[in-house]
Amino acid sequence: MSDKSAHPEQALPFGRAAALYDRVRPPYPPDAVRWAPGDPPARVVDLGAGTAERVDSFGPHFGPVRRAEFRHSVTQTPDGLVGLVKSRSHYLTTSPHRQAEMEAAVRDLARRLGPTFELPYVTVVYRATRL
Questions:
Q1: At 76, phi and psi to the nearest 5?
Q2: Range of the domain at 23
Q3: What is the pTM of this model?
């Protein structure tokens, strides 16, 4: 176990970008929002599982875990794409020099995509019923 108090800036880097993330994150696709509560609808808890590494830990407390993927895209701008990068942990936890390099690379890529472009996403939703 690491001592997070020794490096408070790295312990909670997302806190610095929470407002930015809230502004730039893509919305959930409507089909995913409709699928999540099941039929009949049940209460939904958004665990923010990210990579879903802990989904198997639902174990004995929940019934079978169901999974669905929802492909969608969001119209994006170069500044919006840079904002997304700035809200991610790999950006937040690196040096200012590396952050500047990342921003320049993203701006270079986005410049080639045009003033607006479609950014594809896959939203993965897991659903389980508490036993």
A1: -125, 160
A2: 8-39+69-127
A3: 0.70
